[in-house]
Amino acid sequence: MLRIGIIGCGHIAEILAETMNAMPETVRIEAAASRSISKAEEFAARFGIGKAYGSYELLFEDNDVDLVYIATPHAFHKSEMLEALSHGKHILCEKAFCINAAEAEEVFALAAEKHLYVAEAIWTRYMPARKRIDEIIASGRIGKITTMTANLGYDILWKERIQDPELGGGALLDVGVYPLNFVLMAAGNDPLSSLSGLAVKSERNVDIRNIISMTFASGASATIFSDTQCTSDRRGMIYGTEGTIEVINVNNPERINIYSGDKYPVLLETIPIMHKVNGYEYEIEAAAEAIEQGRLEPEAMPWRETLRVLRICDSMRSAWGIKLASELPE
What we know:
Largest sheet: 8 strands, mixed
CATH architecture of the largest domain: 2-Layer Sandwich
Strand order of the largest sheet: 8-9-10-7-11-12-13-14
Oligomer: single chain
Strand content: 25-35%
Distance between the termini: 44 Å
CATH superfamily of the largest domain: Dihydrodipicolinate Reductase, domain 2
Structural class: alpha/beta
């Protein structure tokens, strides 16, 4: 039984608490912490959690907690993870894992030194849909991949976490990581050969929306976009020489459509995506399994892939002149 402590009691933490409570044979929530004790107590009461703390430090010191689930803004992830690791806790941390790759490297170095599990909780990496897509590509059913597209947009610019550079704001680290991960999962180990992009920025110098283009060593290319002012169709497309894979909702795959490679493509198969709970259970199961086996990272989202994503984001933000959180001048 993996005993979990939750820090940050916002919306995503509520969803994960519901998920964990639906997995009583795998995990138990031991404690919840917020910088507001009243918020922690309300959260704990709502989800049947025995302990509520008004500081993260108190939760880190709780000997009954094995793993800390971090659901705070990503500007604070590095410092919170380093502190949790220093107290001997395993970690499951929400995306974006850190502000940049350098921060993530520091976290992974300490995790390796302490021999503790650390993983980025980007749920699409763990879902069964990812394996189904990999299987279709590997089967050769769509031939050689030539082009990929993916997008994700929501009307969320009004939220402070999106607007504020101190909080790590902008479209790329909040929603853009989903289409980026979609493309990288489909590309597999195909090395990136070129990268370019454009961004529309706010008065506070965060990206409101962006477009990123990539090419890979195989010759495959990809274009993604993310937006914080509109709701997009959220589709992911993987085009091959013999057919096409269409994924409905790259943020939470609902179904996979496979089309022929004809001039007028024919829908050959539709694969619905079903979950045991709600889709978040897989990242929790992966953590419990890895920790039981003594592994420090999950197979679905190894440290090298978290770093791969962050390095691409770092390159784009550097080109756009965007600095966030710890990168900002004091």
